[in-house]
């Protein structure tokens, strides 16, 4: 359970994303759809808990794999299936394992469709187009390469929750940050 505003910051450092340029009719840019499969290295600040996440997104096979290294802490595997089942486990001597069930599958490649354009901002040395989606995700995409640079997830306690937000909360601080269908 999360009882206060909990920002979760993502920084996509390196990825194999290769995206094409898309522009809406109004002249405002629209976020590039995700490639069906990619690997990204994500630096994450999860309310002060620092993690390096190797993210393997695999839409054709209906799965999303987060390999989460906590700073000076455990290595956690979070395998999310589109049918709603997630496996969170370690391969250390403790051999922890949790099975979680979510009402939603993984993010669709076009999950950013319909996001609200907020303009251009500099972040981490990149000039980005910024969009807001379902009132709590800010998504920063490099203007030139169209690659994601930064995400911010925020949520207020007591707010009406989207299926994605429900899942983010249910997943807790160590899992399922990617889950969600819109
Ligand atoms: C991580 O986020 C917290 C706020 O939740 C902030 O106080 C802290 O400075 C951040 N750490 C880094 C390394 O960005
Ligand atoms: C979802 O798919 C995974 C991988 O095939 C499987 O292990 C899991 O049992 C499935 N969950 C449901 C609810 O069918």
TrEMBL record:
The keyword Signal applies. It comes from Liquidambar formosana. InterPro entries: At4g14100-like (IPR038941). PANTHER family: EXPRESSED PROTEIN (PTHR33880:SF19). Keywords: Signal. This is Uncharacterized protein. Residues 1-24 form the signal peptide.
């Amino acid at each position: 359970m999360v009882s206060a505003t909990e920002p979760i910051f993502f920084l996509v450092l390196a990825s194999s994303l290769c995206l094409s340029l898309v522009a809406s009719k109004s002249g405002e840019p629209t976020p590039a759809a995700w490639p069906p499969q990619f690997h990204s290295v994500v630096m994450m600040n999860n309310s002060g808990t620092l993690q390096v996440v190797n993210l393997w997104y695999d839409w054709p096979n209906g799965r999303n794999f987060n390999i989460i290294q906590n700073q000076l802490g455990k290595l956690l595997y979070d395998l999310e299936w589109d049918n709603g089942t997630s496996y969170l486990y370690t391969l250390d001597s403790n051999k922890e394992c949790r099975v979680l069930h979510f009402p939603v599958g993984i993010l669709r490649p076009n999950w950013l469709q319909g996001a609200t354009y907020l303009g251009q901002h500099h972040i981490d040395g990149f000039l980005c187009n910024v969009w807001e989606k379902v009132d709590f995700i800010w998504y920063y995409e490099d203007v030139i390469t169209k690659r994601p640079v930064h995400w911010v997830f925020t949520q207020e306690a007591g707010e009406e929750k989207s299926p994605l937000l429900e899942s983010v909360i249910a997943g807790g601080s160590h899992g399922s940050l990617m889950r969600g269908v819109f």
